[in-house]
Write a structure and sequence with these properties.
The protein folds into 2 domains: about 240 residues, Alpha-Beta Barrel (TIM Barrel), CATH 3.20.20; about 80 residues. The chain has 15 helices and 11 strands. The chain has an 8-stranded parallel β-barrel with strand order 1-2-4-5-6-7-8-9, surrounded by 4 helices. The protein has a two-stranded antiparallel sheet with strand order 10-11. Helix 12 runs antiparallel to helix 13. The longest helix is centred in the C-terminal third of the chain and has 19 residues. The structure holds flavin mononucleotide. The site of flavin mononucleotide has 23 residues, from strand 2 and helix 10. Flavin mononucleotide binds next to strand 2 and helix 10.
Length: about 325
């Protein structure tokens, strides 16, 4: 059972992955890229290309799985071939994105609307020799409106030899809210002819142990928000070792330095860093044991770089990791 860092658009971009791998690699077997949009005329968006270029993924030993967003057989086949030629051994297809502009183009979770069309697409893809060379996996939700839609989707997936079917047991309309439907997940786990991976709401080592205990034959447990909120979570799961404040500082510094090379404008870097502080803020408390929320609030509301830097300095001087 491997442990992976979920794709998260705008967050787990290559700067983040490299900084994370440098400081917290233990426990993470693979990092997914956020979805790469595949154009109809067979190209990957320039911005997305940065995610897969070798020079941006050279932290020693880092293993990357590109995720693609496409809903036509031709585009998928092209992307599999292209990524294989670039040296990637595994590619994941996004069938879970709930965002309106994606779903309205029948991409992401929009692909789940029509199981017959899915069958048509995958029949063509698996006719191609490339699927014997590269591990092709999907990441899917259970449906758009209702988890039971998966009863029509899984039989389609079962007809093809996917490397893995990773299930985030929510439906599109839930976005990231509400609870995963573990009953339908269990049915899928028992009835999938392909290896099954699990994704959703793993926020602690205990959550991980529960899922791994209930579903011992999972091929993968994928973690997203839980890892952004506690970047050492995978190590904690593996060895029990909690994050230290020094590690968190080192990670935030690495991240900021990479953003400087990539993003240039200080304001934009600040926005990116604020987003990460929003997640990791929960790890902290003031040194006297009281709530650090007011300090995190200062970061979130900083209007300029000077305010932001001051707010970070106060956290570095006056906070510590709370009892996890
Ligand atoms: C900000 C954000 C961006 C995301 N981007 C992607 C993405 O590019 N591709 C994808 O398959 N899922 C994406 N997801 C979904 C996550 O990969 C994951 O399925 C979801 O957060 C549930 O897992 P978690 O509870 O461990 O976070 C995104 C989620 C968030 C919150």
């Amino acid at each position: 059972m491997r442990t992976t860092f979920a794709p998260m658009e705008g967050i787990t971009i290559y700067c983040y992955r490299n900084a994370h791998h440098k400081v917290f690699k233990e426990g993470i077997d693979y990092y997914y890229t956020p979805f790469l949009s595949i154009y109809k005329h067979h190209a990957i968006k320039k911005r997305d290309m940065r995610e897969i270029l070798p020079e941006n993924n050279k932290d020693k030993g880092i293993r990357i799985i590109p995720q693609i967003m496409a809903n036509e057989a031709d585009e998928i086949i092209w992307a599999l071939n292209d990524l294989y030629e670039r040296g990637y051994e595994e590619v994941n297809l996004n069938m879970g994105c709930p965002v309106g502009t994606v779903v309205s183009k029948n991409k992401g979770s929009g692909m789940l609307l029509n199981p017959d069309k899915l069958h048509e697409i995958f029949s063509r893809v698996f006719d191609e020799e490339i699927t014997e060379k590269i591990k092709f996996t999907v990441k899917t939700r259970l449906g758009l409106e209702n988890s039971h839609e998966f009863e029509d989707i899984l039989p389609v997936l079962n007809k093809f030899p996917f490397g893995q079917v990773i299930i985030h047991p929510r439906v599109r309309k839930q976005m990231y809210q509400g609870t995963p439907d573990m009953e339908v997940f269990e049915w899928a786990y028992e009835n999938s002819t392909n290896p099954v991976g699990y994704n959703g709401n793993i926020f602690s080592a205990g959550d991980y142990a529960d899922i791994a205990g209930k579903f011992p034959n999972l091929s993968e447990i994928m973690i997203g928000r839980g890892l952004v909120a506690n970047p050492a979570l995978a190590r904690e799961i593996k060895t029990g070792e909690h994050i230290t404040f020094e590690e968190l500082k080192e990670f935030m510094t690495e991240l900021q330095n990479c953003y400087k090379d990539e993003i240039f404008a200080d304001e934009s870097i600040m926005h990116k860093m604020k987003e990460i502080w929003f997640y990791v803020g929960n790890l902290l408390e003031k040194e006297d044991g009281t709530d650090s929320d007011p300090y995190i609030h200062k970061i979130r509301t900083a209007k300029n770089i000077a305010d932001y830097r001051n707010a970070v300095r106060v956290i570095y001087n006056e906070c510590r990791i709370r009892n996890l």
